[in-house]
User: Fold this.
Amino acid sequence: VDPIRLAGERLLLLDQTLLPGKERWIEIRDVAAMIEAIASLRIRGAPAIGIAAGLALALEAKASTDPAHVLLARLDAAAARIKAARPTAVNLAWAVDRVLAAAGRAGKDSGAGDVREAVRAEALAIWEEDRGASRAMAEHGAAFFPTESRFLTHCNTGGLATGGGGTALGVLLELRRRGRDLRVWATETRPLLQGARLTVLELQEAGIPVRLLVDGAAAFAIRTERIEAVVVGADRIAANGDVANKVGSLGLALGARDAGIPFVVVAPTSSVDPDCPSGEDIPIEERDPVEVTSVAGRPTAPGGTAAYNPAFDVTPARLVTAIITEAGLWRPRVVGGRPIEGGSGHR
Amino acid sequence: VDPIRLAGERLLLLDQTLLPGKERWIEIRDVAAMIEAIASLRIRGAPAIGIAAGLALALEAKASTDPAHVLLARLDAAAARIKAARPTAVNLAWAVDRVLAAAGRAGKDSGAGDVREAVRAEALAIWEEDRGASRAMAEHGAAFFPTESRFLTHCNTGGLATGGGGTALGVLLELRRRGRDLRVWATETRPLLQGARLTVLELQEAGIPVRLLVDGAAAFAIRTERIEAVVVGADRIAANGDVANKVGSLGLALGARDAGIPFVVVAPTSSVDPDCPSGEDIPIEERDPVEVTSVAGRPTAPGGTAAYNPAFDVTPARLVTAIITEAGLWRPRVVGGRPIEGGSGHR
Assistant:
């Protein structure tokens, strides 16, 4: 399932808020529409919203008939708006900055036409590279789990969340392709139920037996269901190895540590933020309380209920067994407890 | 809020599955109706279903015109059916056994009328004692927290779950009565949302500021919201101090330990099972998968999704800071890792 499609010159997104009930594709015509789609999670998943952000800038460039210096200013302004759509996944800012840099290089010596072409080419390159990253993560991840067959995963990290086959879920799909007799436990992932709605769908389509559980049951399930590893994605990895990911990940990491099983993060290096020394520096998006006080539009709590609704949490590096990227195992750039320049396996 | 009412000879239950939307009282006329109400969680909470079970036997006795020995056999048969309604909370079996024992004592020397009266008196005594236990737990619990004002709680453990003011929530209400400037964070408690539906309601009615969160956010909230203690109830406490409670409690205990704050269980001694050596011996109820694959009757996952739905989990004694009962702090009856006879603060 590829959540983004180019149909000739038309850019289409699968509206993931309607899955699994409805498969509706929406056409994105401008930056404002893409920002709305990202903020409302019609498109979601750190790698996928990076791709979407790049394509949004390509739409902005295509719509412009301005001379190069005006076009570059327009792209700058659009970039700021896109980055503000969701603050935690660094892939969004990373992709926007990459496309802006390509535009700036083209704009130095050439006209607006070349800038437009450079923006389009860079956006498509980010997409294509992410497809390749998915393949490489799947290979590295499969090698990391030579015998394990009972996995617990959280949120959705498959084809719907990336430009390719996925991050954590991509590893499980690869193990299945290699003939592993897999069993997967998927947390429903409140408040927006990406596990129940999307991960179950992707696993069912791959023919992998899956059991759904409420998020609160995960720590117990790790023991009673004899889970062998927890695998999740990431929205931002700090230089010291702290991992921001879908809220609930920290609890899974604690459950894994207590049970003595690995807690493994699978993410492209575009999710690593070398400018973020630790998890405390990662901005955590707080979303509308109504996501917590209701389910699918139906109120679940008394009127006027206040809610705490962080979309992500931070798992400290000490609880993370391994971070698997397209470049292999990524190691935090830390010496003596402090992040250093350089590090391994990182852009 | 008292979830059970006697109106003359009529026994009424507040149907908690409809809260907070509707306040509907249902009349319970026989054992079958009470079993249905317990199994479907119209009445829930370990102490409350103990009370309900005792009252169910009183209904059975009242309906009988049999001689004493036939009545006793009828009560035995009803007791077995009531105990099977929900297997984890030991209060159910404990109350049933107490009422049966009272009936047996009366039946030895007297006629059916005395048996009926003994059954009714014992059922009412259990109810009255639980009211007193709530008061005593609130006192002991308030003393246990001399300064704390930021608490996280799980599921519902207030007046709706007991014959009195509650267990864990009763302690918080008592702190408020004593003038503590409380802030409470309540987990929604999937799958059946007792936190969102019931705990928020009870806290709002007491004028205590409460923020609702999804279960997966609890471990992160403990850190970011600077929670000072986690307080929960219990459905069964094994002799070694392992605690079965609403699923999700284990994850909260792990979060509390990692953050270095207390994880405190508040429960009457009727929740202690001296015949259960450890948590591994506690039967954990698995409920209908549809509770996980839907919310309030609406499907949330693709058709045909399998689910793992334990209603409770087990928190090992090593993660429990304290168990507060009506008799004060309860200590596991353990020496050298093995449960022993005797112990403290226990019937």
Observations:
- Chain A touches chain B through 55 residues (CB under 8 Å).
- The mean pLDDT of chain A is 95.
